[in-house]
């Protein structure tokens, strides 16, 4: 009803007012045109593109409105790398940033060795392509498996992931919350499997089993250049079977396929997982082109060449084809699970607190005198420590 009113009003206005002739520059400069005259110009432009089509309402323009809004806001995407020490996690982070994703934004730096990672470290790059801005953050983690006893070695990683959910939750429940909550939640976790060529180790099974419940996991075979093509194919197949046998649901999870088309595309990806990747931050000249690669006595392995390894497939999945879906699943499944559990825990805690403490009585209007200690709307999480363990 309202929409029809606007449409018919605009038709009347454009009929009664004389045509205005302005340049695109004038349209964009606010001081020369009032809001009303700019609206009129837009309506005139609309009239021109749909001359004679009186049935056109303009619902399709919502896409353009959404595109503009998204372009203004930009995107945030957070990837974490996890795996045993020395499997090439830090190298792959550099590969990602130096490869086509952001080659423009990286300064060529002299050759340097990557030191062993000793703490969880986030590295962010602001990337822009065709006017679309994206803040890509990669969270590098120290490798595990160095200790004699690797029991609970997943705890620091799980804590980091849960901490980010907690930060987001506290922002959400704040009374004066930000218009747009900064998103530091881990959207995707790349899990590095050692290239043994045999089967998954119990530690990898346990790690992925736990992680898959709180975050999207994309497993990769690290240092795939150390396997022959036959070994690689056999290993990939064995890993897929073992993941299935152990009930480890990696990304893209079958249960979240939205329709038949989705299922078809995702089935292809599921057949390729785990991606056999090779990482490098060194550039070489091959056939007159500069490429990222690993130079050996027998030739150069090009990391972005799909005939050599599957790094490009991994990058395309993360950035080009599934980024929004990965973020959606993080928000609607993983974060939601965390949020529901936290709020339930706070309710239980609150009820127990009420029954223990006669001083905390419900007011006559049904409101409570005190806020539960776990989730106070000022963003203080008193119980955070106790809750940020594994799920
Ligand atoms: N052959 C081969 N070597 C690689 C590859 N990626 C990295 N390396 C080498 O493996 C060594 C360890 O690489 P890092 O990137 O430091 O490994 P990491 O997983 O970050 O290790 P931590 O920080 O200890 O957890 C370095 O000498 C790299 O040059 C690869 O794809 N193939
Ligand atoms: Mg490292």
UniProtKB/TrEMBL annotation:
Q: Where is the signal peptide?
A: 1-16
Molecular functions (GO terms): GTP binding
UniProt key word rRNA-binding: no
**Keyword terms:** Cell cycle, Cell division, Cytoplasm, Cytoskeleton, GTP-binding, Nucleotide-binding, Signal
Which Gene3D superfamilies does this chain map to? P-loop containing nucleotide triphosphate hydrolases (3.40.50.300)
The UniProt record lists the Septin-type G domain at: 73-345
Per the record, the GO terms for biological process are: cell division
What are the start and end residues of every segment in region (Disordered)?
A: 354-391
GO CC term, one of those recorded: cytoskeleton
Subcellular location, principal: cytoplasm
- SUPFAM superfamilies membership: P-loop containing nucleoside triphosphate hydrolases
Q: Which CDD domains match?
A: CDC_Septin (cd01850)
Q: Which Pfam families match?
A: Septin (PF00735)
Q: Where in the cell is it found?
A: Cytoplasm, Cytoskeleton
Please state which protein family the record places this protein in. Belongs to the TRAFAC class TrmE-Era-EngA-EngB-Septin-like GTPase superfamily. Septin GTPase family.
What is the name attached to this protein's record?
Septin-type G domain-containing protein
Organism of origin is: Amphiprion ocellaris (Clown anemonefish)
The gene is: SEPTIN9
